Structure formats: C-alpha cells, structure tokens
Amino acid sequence: MSLPSPFNFSEHLFALNRGRAQKTAYLDDHGALSYGQLEDRARRFATALLTAGIRRGERVLLLQLDSIDWPVSFLGCLYAGVVPVAVNTLLTADDYAYMLDHSGSVAALVSGALLPVLQDGMSRAPHALRRLFVSHPITTLPDGALDFDSMIASHMPMAEPLATEPTDHAFWLYSSGSTGRPKGTVHAHGSLWWTAELFGKPVLALTEDDVCFSAAKLYFAYGLGNALTFPLSVGATVVLMAERPTPDATFKRWTGNAAHGVAAAMKPTVFFGAPTGFAGMLASPALPMADTVALRMCSSAGEALPGEIAQRFKAHYDCEIIDGIGSTEMLHVFISNRPGDIRYGTTGKPVEGYAIELRGEDGNAVADGEVGDLYIKGPSAALMYWANPEKTAATFKDGWTQSGDKYSRDADGYYTYAGRSDDMLKVSGIYVSPFEVESTLMLHPAVLEAAVIGKPDADGLTKTKAYVVLKAGQTASDDELKAFVKNRLAPYKYPRFIEFVDELPKTATGKIQRFRLREREQAA
User: Fold this and answer.
1) 370: how many CB neighbours lie within 10 A of its CB?
2) What is the pLDDT of residues 201-251, one digit of tens each?
3) Rounded to an integer, what distance in angstroms lies between the CA atom of residue 152 and that of residue 148?
4) What pLDDT was estimated at residue 262?
5) pLDDT (tens digit per residue) in 170-182
6) 128 vs 24, 43, 117, CA distance in Å?
7) CA distances (Å), 87 to each of 2, 45, 70, 238, 318, in order?
8) Spatial contact of 45 and 152, defined as CB atoms under 8 Å apart
C-alpha cells in the first residue's frame, strides 16, 4: 500500500464520507454533528485560521475537552496545513507554559472551562500568542480573544485543502520521559491513515453501523485513533464525553441515559478503555446488566490487562476485550489480541504491517521465552522528537522505534509484558515519572528523601507508592503529602500509597535502588 501525492488526511476523511452528509458523526452532552456539518465547520475553521494570520506549518496548542469542537479544531488545522499540538487537559499552568514555549505555538484553541489555567500558563510563557480561540462554555471572553463559534460562522469554507504530503508534519502529541520535560512527538499526515488501515479496519473490524465510545481522551494517541481516525475512516458514529470516565459516567453512555435529542438511542457498540477502568466498572454496584447495553466488543490498551478482569467482563456481557499495546511514538496499537483469538494474560501477536523484535543487552534477538527490549518498525512511526536530537537518536534507530518496554514471546508467537526498561510507571494508562513525584515530595519541608515505585493492587494493576524519609524532628501524614503533590502536579500523578521509612536502599555512590523497594513489595 502507498499513499498518493499530495495527501491531506482531513480531505481524505471528508471525501470518504460525502455520501453520509446527514449521518451523525459525533454526539456529546450538548448536541450532535453530522458528517456534512463536521466537514463544513472544519473547512470554515481552516479559513478562520488563515484569516487570523496562522500559516502553513505553524503550531497551535489544542487544549479542549472532548466535545464536538475538538474534531472540528483538529481537522480544520490539518485541512489548512496548520499543526495542532494536542495536549492533556489535566496539566498545570507550568506544563502549558513549557509546551507553548517548546512548540513555538503561535495560537491556542481552548475550551472556556480550561481558559483560566491556560491564561496562567500564557503569563509564564516567554512569548505572546498571536491568537486565542475560545470555545464554549464561555463566561467572559478575554480582550483580543476570538469566539470559536463566531469565527466559524463568519467565514466561508476553505475551497481546497492545503496540498500536504504524506510525510509532512500534521500534528504533535507530548510523550512523557523518565526524567526531564515531556517530548514533542511529531507525526505526519500519513501516520493517521496507516493506523486505520493496519489496525482499525482489519483488527477491530469497525463498520459504519458502529457507535464508538472511548474512555481515553482525544489528546491521547490511543483516544485519537479510537474516537477520530478509526470511526471516521469507516463512517461510524462517535460518542464524546468531556467529564472524567468514572464508572457512573461511562455507564450513562453505555445505556444511552446521557444522550440528548437525536442521539438518545445511540448506545455504543464498541468501547475503548484501559484495565484500571474495566476493574473499577466491574467493582461498581451500578454495573449495568447485559440487556441494557449494546456492546459487541471492547478494546483495552495503556497497561497490561490482567486475564481475570477480561474473563469476568466476558462472563457478564458476553463481550470480548481485545487487549493490545501501542505508544505515542507509533501512534496506536502494534501488538494485539484479536476477536476470536484471545490469549488471556498476553498482549497478543504483532499487527500485520508492523515488525517486532525483542533484543537483549547485546542488541541481538532473544530466544522465545526470554525477556528482551521491545523494538517496533512500522509506517505510523513518529518523525522525531521536536528539538531533541539526542532523544530522537536514542529512540528512532535505523527505522526501528525502541519502546522502552520489556516483553517475552512464547513458542506460539504471543507476546507478554514484562515491565519497563526504565523506571517509568503506567498508572491508569498514563505514564508517571517516579523522579517527578519524588522531586515534588521533597519540596515538602518535612521530607528528606523519597522514592516512588509501582505497587500492584488487588486486581494486578499498577498504582504509585512512595517511600518517604522524614527530616529529624519533623512529622507529616500520608494524606498531607498526597494533597501536597496533588496541588503541584497533575492529579493522576499523586502517590496512592505512602510508607514512612528510616532510610532508603542506595548504591555505594548514593543512587536510590528502586529495585530493592520493588523486591520488598513482592516479598510482603
């Protein structure tokens, strides 16, 4: 397979769906958007961007909650050749200040509810934005800011897409690292097409009759595929939810109780979640009965899915959970179980179109049954980490991408997760840096040292645990330290467990031995 030249992914999707102009493409808590309206609004927004002085290849920060405005913004940017930098809505003002500066964003697209934290970040960034587009709900529009809906209504649709190439910069996502700031991961227009052709269509087998709902938000690589790339590539309908994907919030969408108007009867047929979410739903007393939902299949990624959770879900709903692994760098899933071919406790087999290698410390392939570092080669790989040649060279090598994960492969070709190559943790499907949490804990006046590791919970899912050494004569409670971290980092990063100790295990040179703490947990 190859892509034509030129190739603009937005135009590709619009052309696919021009025969579905009246069909619902998106619905959220406030309304619905047909395929015809999606194209019209995105192309109008493309004109608005260019009229506002945003030019080809320039970056704009995309900080919006999951609503019908998000795909309009993203696809409008791509149509105009502008590069959206989609960012996590749970971050701090310092995070946004860094991302604005690092990306060189000349404008920002923000939901009204997120405007205060972005404005705080803008005040800390070294350069001023040229334009600020604010989408609803809006209480007060800042001086000089532009109303998103008004800008769309006041412009004509852009006549033709910008003639981008499959390898041209299309959008950015930020990928966390074990130390230091997150990395700006640059993807091309062709990357989106490849993930749909290699995974969305052949593995998930989505059709235009499906209604898709993703707990993972659109700013995640996983959520972007689930709620935009894959469903729009087949003409399906997507349910979007701005709030956190708690069990109760998820159940309302599954049963159609949160929908309005034309969307009231649109229950999801395909749900995309993560193991922590599935475990929480199964433990909820409000878990809906099978005859109240329309699920035919579920997908899981973000962290390894314990087989026991998948089996309990299947027993309750007679619905399989397809577990797989993807990454920001590869954009979506490259190893996966498949409908009718699920081996519980494994991540499945390589997705066709991706080559997988497990390498030992000597760089050579390891034998079946042995643990090795996971390398992937495939056409959806990112182009680079922006302005970070050292990390780019370390991750993207001779066409291969080093994932940072360790895996083993059995004699039948199934891959099983064995941990991380660094100390990074995946908590609820999101990377957490132990170093960042430790550094924050040590800002507390009572804390001398801290070390953070992953601790499996009763369902076998990873949660953060902090070992803390207090200064002589100082006291602090675990609730106090948890609140201290929550107030300084994104909420999902705080340690779920805290244990106070007299000292931490260290090497002769004073480096903390986190593996000793992991051994302690395993022995407990």
Assistant:
1) 12
2) 999 999 999 999 999 999 999 999 999 999 999 999 999 999 999 999 999
3) 6
4) 46
5) 999 998 755 568 8
6) 38, 26, 16
7) 30, 19, 12, 20, 36
8) yes
Q: What is the DSSP string of 273-318?
A: E-HHHHHHHHT-TTPPPGGG---SEEEE-SS---HHHHHHHHHHHS
pLDDT digits (tens, 9 = 90+) for 382-403: 999 999 999 999 999 999 999 9
Beta carbons within 8 Å of 259's beta carbon, 6+ residues apart: 27, 239, 253, 265, 266
**Beta-carbon neighbour count of residue 196 at 10 Å?**
25
Give the residue-averaged pLDDT of 448-454: 88
Task: Look at strands 270-273 and 321-326 and give their pairing.
Answer: unpaired
- Helices 275-282 and 307-317: crossing angle in degrees, nearest 10, is 50
Can you give the pLDDT at residue 511?
59
Backbone angles phi, psi at 461, to 5 degrees: -100, 145
- Alpha carbons within 13 angstroms on the beta-carbon side of residue 156 total 3
> Within 13 A of 415's CA, how many CA atoms are on the CB side?
29
Task: Round to whole Å and give the CA distance between 391 and 107.
Answer: 27
**How many CB atoms within 10 Å of residue 297?**
17
Which of 384, 381, 363, 380 lies closest to 372, judged by CA? 363
* C-alpha span between 377 and 397 (Å, rounded): 10
Residue 269 corresponds to which tokens in the numbers above? 């047929």
Chain-wide mean pLDDT for the chain? 92
By the 10 Å C-beta count (0-12 exposed, 13-18 middle, 19+ buried), 289 is classed as: exposed
**Could you check whether the bond before residue 306 is cis, i.e. omega within 30 degrees of 0?**
no
Burial environment of residue 40 by CB neighbours within 10 A (0 to 12, 13 to 18, 19 or more): middle
Quick one: which of 60, 76, 70, 54 has its CA closest to 9? 76
How confident is the model over 269-293, as a mean pLDDT?
A: 93
Q: Do residues 353 and 333 lie in contact, with contact meaning Cβ atoms separated by under 8 Å?
A: no
Distance in angstroms (rounded) separating the CA atoms of residues 113 and 132: 14
Please give the sequence-ordered ranges of beta strands (E in DSSP) within 51-150, or none if there are none: 59-63, 83-86, 107-111, 131-135, 146-147
Going by C-alpha positions, the residue among 70, 337, 9 that lies closest to residue 196 is 9
> Is residue 507 predicted with pLDDT exceeding 70?
no
Residue 152 tokens, joined: 């769309």
Query: CB–CB of 323/300 below 8 Å?
Result: yes
Asked if 301 and 333 count as a contact pair (C-beta separation under 8 A), the reply is yes
**Span 333-384, pLDDT tens digits:** 999 999 999 999 899 999 999 999 999 989 999 999 888 999 999 999 999 9
Most distant pair of Cα atoms in the chain: their distance: 72
* Helix%, strand%, coil% for the chain, nearest 5: 30, 25, 45
Angle at 420 (CA atoms; ends 515, 66), nearest 5 degrees: 125
Q: How confident is the model at residue 87, as a pLDDT?
A: 97
The bridge status of strand 237-239 relative to strand 183-188 is unpaired
